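Posting for a labmate who doesn't have an account.
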Amino acid sequence: CRNRAEGAKAVVRDEGVGAGVENREKTAKPVGKFVNDHIGGFTVAYCDENNKKGREIALEAGQWYLGTAAKRYSNEWAGVDPASVPEDYKYHNPHMRQRPTQIGHGIEVAPGDTNPETMLDNGTVCGGDPDACIRTAEKYESQGIDQFLPLFQAGNIPHDKIMSSIRLFGKYVIPHFQEKAKKEAKAAKPA
């Protein structure tokens, strides 16, 4: 998307993620020359000229990804003493979650969130035609996320469809945000 607005917070279900990011920006010790104050948001994405077809393909890929991730994480940290897990990794440990709906630090899955239509409508998965993909990216942007990270090559999407999806993002979605950033920069300049 574009650079995060001053003071914006990334919030997913609660203030935990945004508050943590804001705190890290203030207290981070740079590994390199500066603190990266950008916030990236990752999702499975598929863009198609046909909105219905795009939603179907994106949803299938998204469900594949979430199922694969659940299997991958189910044995992570098995047999590891929870007291020895570094704080920054505790959200990855399924054995340390405080609630069954918790899937990460500050991230909750409410009942019904895995309903296919809900996953598309709330931005868990980005899919549809270019306008639908823009609306999803704008949901991320509204949460303070300034780097939208779509995973196009998920599930069983054929190579030609992946390339078509990337082409549509490049032709319509990215230019939408570039134009939006230009307008905002122009409006922010003193007269």
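Reply:
Got it, the structure tokens are right above this. The radius of gyration is 18 Å.
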